[in-house]
Every structure is written in C-alpha cells, then in structure tokens.
Amino acid sequence: MTALEFSYQVGNFSKFLKPFALRLTRDGDDANDLVQDTLVKAYTNREKYMDGTNLKAWLFTIMKNTFITQYQRMVRRNTFIDTTENLHFINSSESVQINAAESTFMREDINLALSHTEEMYRVPFLLYFEGFKYHEIADELGLPIGTVKNRIHIARKSLKQHLQMYA
C-alpha cells in the first residue's frame, strides 16, 4: 500500500475514532488528544501495517493501547511509594472507598435546617430550589414578586445560620 493510499484509508476511518475515544476518556478534549495521538502513531508506524489486514481494527488497537499507556502513567504519577520497610502505597486509587455517608449527613442537616425555617419562608425557597422562576412562584402563591424575593432571601439567611458548620 502506498503512502497516499494509506493516508486516504486512515482519513476514512478517522471519523470512527472520535466516538471510541469519547467512550474511553469521557472528556471531549482528552478524546481529541487521544485521536490525534493515535493518528500520529499510525502514520509514524505505517511500515508495521500489513496489507490485507483490517486497518480500522489496527487503528482501534493503537488507540486502546495508547489510552491504557496514558492511564497507567497517570496512575503511577498519582501514587506515592513509601520507602520504609513496609512499602505502603500512599494515595493509591485502589484503596479508596467512596460512599454516600457524607452527603447523607449533609442532606439530613439541610432538611433539619429547613424544618426550623418558618413555612412562609420555606415554601417559596423550596419552589425556587426546584427551579421555578420568581414570577412563577409569585403567581402560584398569590404574592407580589418583591415579597417572594424577600422571603427566599430570608430563608437563605436562616439556612446559612443553621448550616454554619459547612462554611
């Protein structure tokens, strides 16, 4: 296969690389970088491609291996090794456990703070928090828009006071 034919074929298959890169990286900029790295490696290693084999699969393999190599480098860079006798891995992502305990405590504290807020302030605040606009809340509650804004402001101040531990 000539260099021109190879370039043409790679150009045809390059449109399939971006969705695969997005699935691997889950980030648009990183996906673009991965596609670019893949194409650079494909062009620089053109002589390693054997005619008659699946070029699309070859490109996908280059992309997958490039992603794995970059990921391993990132993990190694973010892991600190303790050089004492025990050789503990510090900040290793393998030992991190994520749970919802902290967010559960925060949610409970927020609900408790809301229960201590007077209803006339709590209702407009909750409607605003749910995404309603000021004028929609005013129409729903039959209040002037200035009153709605004032009550939401007072509810925020009350919540801020009750939730000082999170400041």
Automatic annotation (TrEMBL):
Q: Which UniProt keywords apply?
A: Sigma factor, Transcription, Transcription regulation
One Pfam family, short name: Sigma70_r4_2
Stretches of the chain forming a coiled coil according to its record: none
Q: Where is the RNA polymerase sigma factor 70 region 4 type domain?
A: 119-159
Q: Which SUPFAM superfamilies match?
A: Sigma2 domain of RNA polymerase sigma factors, Sigma3 and sigma4 domains of RNA polymerase sigma factors
Every RNA polymerase sigma-70 region domain range: 15-73
CDD domains the record matches: Sigma70_r4
- Identify the PANTHER family for this entry: RNA POLYMERASE ECF-TYPE SIGMA FACTO, RNA POLYMERASE SIGMA FACTOR RFAY-RELATED
NCBIfam families hit by this protein: sigma70-ECF
> To which protein family does this belong?
Belongs to the sigma-70 factor family. ECF subfamily.
Q: What is this protein called?
A: Sigma-70 family RNA polymerase sigma factor
Q: Which organism is it from?
A: Aquirufa avitistagni
